[in-house]
Design goal:
By secondary structure, this protein is mainly alpha-helical. 73% of the residues lie in helices and 0% in strands. The N and C termini lie far apart (117 Å).
Length: 182
């Protein structure tokens, strides 16, 4: 009886020592992981330097395009939100989803007649999609800074594409193309 009890007891003692040591290691690991998460949260804040480092080509509105969008209030508001975004301020894009949806719906519905063109509407849809994606990425509690920067870049490019298309529309409208006569 004594012989069977001794291996059992030694096995039990050995298991408790291993479990005790592993618990101490896990406790240290948890502390290290929590400090790493804290550092990642600090590093995940988007700054204007992060956005300046993004690689994209920026366009400005031509004089004629500027005049045609002057009374398009939601477009002017969009420009303000994009300027804030370039400074690292994501507050608008972190708003409630209903506010974002209302804004994008009004942006589309209030388009001036002179700009109500299929190519411009397509750019508006693309912009709307990237704004929703940015909103989703910005409101996640555990967002990845790299993914958030990608969403920011996509939104900036979509807005720039809209500006480019507005400029192209007026450039094309200004061309005097004569059709050949037979």
């Amino acid at each position: 009886m004594r012989k069977t009890f001794l291996p059992f007891f030694s096995m039990l003692l050995f298991t408790s020592i291993i479990l005790s040591n592993s618990c101490k290691k896990e406790e240290g690991t948890v502390t290290a992981e929590s400090s790493q998460i804290t550092n990642e949260v600090k590093d995940s804040k988007i700054t204007n330097k992060d956005i300046e480092a993004l690689d994209y080509i920026e366009y400005v509105l031509s004089e004629r395009s500027e005049q045609s969008t002057r009374d398009w209030l939601k477009f002017q508001e969009l420009r303000k939100h994009i300027d804030d975004l370039k400074k690292g301020d994501l507050s608008f894009f972190k708003e409630e989803k209903t506010i974002i949806q209302e804004f994008t719906t009004e942006l589309e519905s209030q388009i001036p007649e002179s700009l109500n063109d299929a190519s411009i509407n397509a750019r508006l849809v693309a912009l709307k999609t990237t704004i929703y994606k940015l909103h989703d990425d910005a409101t996640l509690n555990n967002h990845d800074k790299k993914l958030l920067l990608i969403s920011i870049k996509e939104t900036l490019i979509a807005q720039i594409s809209l500006i480019f298309q507005i400029n192209k529309k007026f450039e094309k409208d200004g061309q005097q193309i004569k059709k050949p006569t037979n």
